[in-house]
Inverse folding.
């Protein structure tokens, strides 16, 4: 029996689990590896991804992994397809399907995500190789007069077309409209823009008849720009984030999985925990789909050396355990002491 879209969406975030975003393009992962002077080859990228996928016990905290085209076709050092390495642990494999951002014509300084051409056929193929969900990321810059309505509408339309195509191919769409942290804007401005973005996206999803029960939303948290002189405290980020989600995200959506977007590992955990401690209705599961905030500590510990594999896996396990506790609003700074996990 095949699981319905809603069952798959719910399974990914069940039991306070979240997602590992391991879908950096080859060029992005090459930049990350270069920060540790690790040469980026097909083999080193495979070893890097495999480190995460084979971390003992990681299926307690990770319900899904977002892969990228190269990785979904690779095999482990033991010759097992990486997709099967995940499936055998009960982790749902997914795939990034957008083709990246390009400058939006007529809207200087803004971007539109491309990749709709031929998407139906690519989704069919990804499903055959084992993907059960997909991801498409749109980005919005906050600036003087930005984002413009033209940027909101072009990206929302593409996200909705992508999501409808995914559901047609029996894949759960992860809809990722990311308001970027870059800039000097205040947290209030981020809240306002995030609200406009989500409003436009859900309007477009309704127009394209996307079944909200069978999707996941991957938004940014509401945070001041990285160059804003006033960085809001954790509580304020949590309140602003939950307020905008309550106003804009219908309760039919089973799960909201935040991106980390450049927050460091600790802050991404603390923000998620604070959001899940707030009183009042939260009709969706609020969890994580972190890339950098789940990988950075492990990459530091690994440093491209096989003798560091267990230390790197421990770092990843520990961070995922903290993030999973944050989904329950049960994270505390004591969990950062190694003794807490001995
Ligand atoms: P970050 O958590 O590093 O922002 O990555 C998440 C992601 O998938 C971006 O598309």
């Amino acid at each position: 029996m095949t699981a319905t879209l809603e069952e798959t969406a719910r399974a990914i975030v069940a039991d306070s689990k979240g997602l590992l975003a391991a879908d950096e393009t080859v060029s992005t992962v090459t930049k990350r590896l270069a920060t540790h002077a690790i040469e980026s080859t097909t083999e080193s990228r495979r070893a890097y991804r495999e480190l995460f996928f084979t971390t003992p016990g990681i299926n307690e905290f990770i319900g899904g992994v977002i892969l990228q085209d190269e990785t979904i076709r690779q095999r482990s050092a033991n010759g097992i397809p990486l997709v099967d390495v995940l499936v055998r642990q009960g982790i749902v494999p997914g795939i990034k399907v957008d083709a990246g951002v390009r400058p939006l014509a007529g809207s200087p300084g803004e971007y539109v995500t491309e990749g709709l051409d031929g998407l139906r056929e690519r989704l069919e193929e990804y499903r055959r190789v084992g993907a059960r969900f997909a991801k498409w990321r749109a980005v919005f810059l906050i600036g003087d007069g930005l984002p413009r309505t033209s940027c909101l509408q072009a990206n929302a339309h593409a996200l909705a077309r992508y999501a409808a195509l995914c559901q047609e191919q029996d894949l759960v769409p992860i809809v990722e409209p990311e308001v970027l942290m870059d800039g000097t804007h205040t947290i209030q401005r981020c809240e306002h823009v995030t609200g406009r973005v989500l409003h436009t996206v859900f309007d477009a999803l309704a127009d394209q008849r996307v079944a909200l029960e069978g999707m996941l939303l991957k938004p940014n948290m509401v945070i001041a720009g990285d160059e804003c002189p006033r960085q809001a405290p954790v509580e304020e980020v949590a309140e602003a984030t939950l307020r905008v989600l309550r106003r804009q995200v219908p309760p039919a959506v089973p799960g909201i999985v935040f991106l980390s977007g450049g927050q460091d590992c600790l802050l991404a955990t603390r923000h998620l925990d604070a959001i899940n401690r707030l009183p009042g209705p939260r009709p969706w599961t609020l969890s994580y789909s972190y890339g950098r905030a789940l990988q950075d500590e492990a990459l530091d510990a690994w440093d491209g050396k096989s003798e560091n594999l267990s230390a790197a896996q421990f770092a990843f396990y520990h961070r995922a355990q903290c993030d999973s506790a944050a989904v329950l609003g049960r994270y505390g700074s004591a969990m950062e002491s190694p003794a807490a996990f001995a």
